[in-house]
């Protein structure tokens, strides 16, 4: 077959296809991409390369049954080619081999490798020879016949745009709400001598605006990123605001948005380095109770046990904690047990935390309960002495009482009257960076690096005022 040779000096050329492009290619060509891939695998092929624009090259690749003509761009994520499969500049298969003129192309013996867009590994990146070949093609002038093809493509795009405009003008308008009818008596009269009446119908027409961010929005939706909510709680139809703002999580930005822009939209979109973080504040029951203890002057501390999801109440001694009736009734508090928490820095300088559960009889109270707390304190003290002998430092422990509670009686969206003032005071160290919105109960700040995000997040967590 013409064009297929065997040589020791071939250049490995890698062409990537997206799954959608594979489907589109197979739909419109007699030979499937898998068949072409099998035909060229492991063979040294005399290929021709043309520069058809500043960003696109055309590859002529002979196969056992014809020729693959691939329109490609440079896929910067992996430094390889990526095939372009669309209406006007479509990568296609021809049943016959038609090579370009020698003065309008570069000929090179190549080992062609066709892979999936997401296939990774060092073996699937460009070699030095491949990159040099790519740069050599980039330095070539655009052939005159290719310029004509580009002009034709522009003309075809213009025709399609005009057809789309005409079609949109022919479509009916969507109306919002009910029509308003206004009547006006006219000076002229009908055949019965009665004043004629003019009817004026007013309707609200819904505006339909096609966002310039639609292609990127469609790509994001393919990866499960959907529109956020309006302030009234209704789902938005578009991800992007007209100014390009989009609400995403930090993970969605890092793992979806940034890779998509880099791989598919590098010529169209660029994300601003500064990111605005918005945190919706929710109350925590232990924060609410600690605020209550502070207001009544009690030296008690509440925390949530992550393992049991019970509340832990700590005091400065082993006496039974007698819960205020108001608090007990409000959350249906019921004592479930006793617990100790140990915090220390180990011999390697790492901070460690552990819990030790004590045992009490159901319904135990008074001196019986206090005796069990003293036994648990003795057990924990012995543990701490052991840790100290092993090189641990900064060792301390607390003895607490476990309480069950009725979570349905606590509203995470409700804060006490002092919350807003206390939060504003707590934010003073970062008052020029972190803003609190009392209307939406949210905190916002701008950052550019992960380090900045971690600094602000660590500070906000340290406040222990919300979750």
Q: What's the SSE blueprint?
A:
Blueprint lengths: L3 E2 L5 E7 L1 H10 L4 H8 L3 E8 L4 E7 L4 E9 L4 E4 L8 E3 L11 E11 L11 H11 L5 H27 L4 E15 L5 E11 L8 H9 L27 H15 L10 E6 L4 H12 L4 E4 L6 E4 L10 H7 L2 E12 L5 E8 L7 H24 L3 E12 L14 H8 L8 E3 L4 E6 L2 H13 L5
Parallel strand pairs: 2-6, 2-8
Antiparallel strand pairs: 1-3, 3-4, 3-8, 4-5, 5-6, 5-7, 9-10, 11-18, 12-13, 13-16, 14-15, 14-16, 17-18
Overall outline? flat
- Tell me the structural class: alpha+beta
Strand order of the largest sheet: 2-6-5-4-3-8
User: How many structural domains are formed by the residues?
Assistant: 4
Gyration radius from CA atoms, angstroms: 36 Å
How much of the sequence is in beta strands?
Answer: 25-35%
Overall average pLDDT: 81
Estimated helix fraction = 25-40%
Count of DSSP-assigned helices: 11
Give the N-to-C terminal Cα separation: 69 Å
Tally the beta strands: 18
Low-confidence stretches: 1-7, 229-234
Largest sheet: 6 strands, mixed, barrel
Secondary-structure element series: EEHHEEEEEEHHEEHHEHEEHEEHEHEEH
